[in-house]
Amino acid sequence: MSKVAEIAGRDKAQVSRTLATLAEVGLVSRDPDTLQYSLGYGLYALAARTAEARMVSASTPFLKRVSAATHETTHLCVLRGGTVLTLKSEMSNHTYRALGWEGVSVDAWGTSSGRVLVSDWDSAALRGWYDANVANATALQAISPLALETGQPQPAGHRPNKIQTFDDLRAEISLIRRRGYAVVDEEFESGVVGVSAPVYDFKQRIVAAINVSAPKQRFGRHLEQAGALAATVALDFSAALGADLKGRPLNGGKG
C-alpha cells in the first residue's frame, strides 16, 4: 500500500480506503497473511468479457461465410460451465430455420459445440468436467431446435447420446482432434444434425466454436463437407484473433 501511495502521489489513508473499496467489488484482492494487494477476480472477469465482446464483433464475416456456403444458420458458441451459450447467430435464407438462439444455453455434452469447446483440455480437467456435468445426468434437458423452427411441440425421443461414459467422451475428443470438427447426428434433438469447429485465441486456447445445426432431412447428407468448411473458417477466424496455428493439422475428413 505504501508503494501504491508513493507511485500515485496520494496519502496512505486515502489509498487504503480506495483499495478497501476495490476489494469489496472484487477488483483487487488482499492476502490475509501478508496483507499485500493483488489484482482481483473481478478485474479478470471484466477483461474476459471485453475480449469476448471483441470476438463477437469480429466473428460476423466468418459466420456469414459459413452461412452463405451452407445456406444454414450459423452460430458462435462459448462454454459456460456445463452449458453452451450462443453469443451470435448468422441467419440462413431458409424460411424453415432455427430462430432465437442468441443468449440461449443448452447442456454442453450432447452438442457438437460443447464437445469441441473441451477438446483441448487435458485428461484431468476433462475428467473433472465430466464428473460435474455428465456422469449424473439422466436426460438431456434442452430447448428444442425444431420447436423453435416450427413452433410445434418437441418431438418425443431422440437417439441415445453416444457420450455415456468417460471413455466415450475421451474417444469423441480424440476423434475431434483428428479431423478438426465435431458431428452430432440426432443426439441433441430428433431430426436435427450439426457440426462445430474450434476457434482459438492468441494463447492457442479454444475460446469458442462455430456451429451449424439444421434438420437432418435437409442437411444430413452434407455434414462432412460442412464440418470441413467450418474447421477451415474457424482456423481463419482464429488467425484473425491472433492464434498461430501453422503447425496444427487439419484433416477435414473422417477420423
What does this structure look like?
By secondary structure, the protein is α+β, with helices and mostly antiparallel strands. The protein folds into two domains: 2-39, no CATH class; 51-240, GAF domain (Beta-Lactamase), CATH 3.30.450.40. The protein has nine helices and eight strands. It has helices spanning 2-8, 12-24, 41-70, 112-117, 123-133, 145-150, 166-179, 216-219, 223-240, and strands spanning 28-30, 37-39, 74-80, 83-90, 105-107, 182-185, 192-200, 206-215. The strands form two sheets. The protein has a six-stranded antiparallel beta sheet. It has a two-stranded antiparallel ribbon with strand order 1-2. Helix 3 packs across helix 9. The chain is elongated and about 70 Å long. It starts with a helix and ends in a 15-residue tail after the last helix.
Task: Reconstruct the topology from this structure.
Blueprint (H helix, E strand, L loop, with lengths): L1 H7 L3 H13 L3 E3 L6 E3 L1 H30 L3 E7 L2 E8 L14 E3 L4 H6 L5 H11 L11 H6 L15 H14 L2 E4 L6 E9 L5 E10 H4 L3 H18 L15
Antiparallel strand pairs: 1-2, 3-4, 3-8, 4-5, 6-7, 7-8
Features:
disordered C terminus, alpha+beta, 43% helix, 8 strands, six-stranded antiparallel sheet, 255 residues
Summarize the structure.
This protein is an alpha+beta fold and 255 residues long. The chain contains 9 helices and 8 strands. It folds into 2 domains: 38 residues, no CATH class; 190 residues, 2-Layer Sandwich (Beta-Lactamase), CATH 3.30.450.
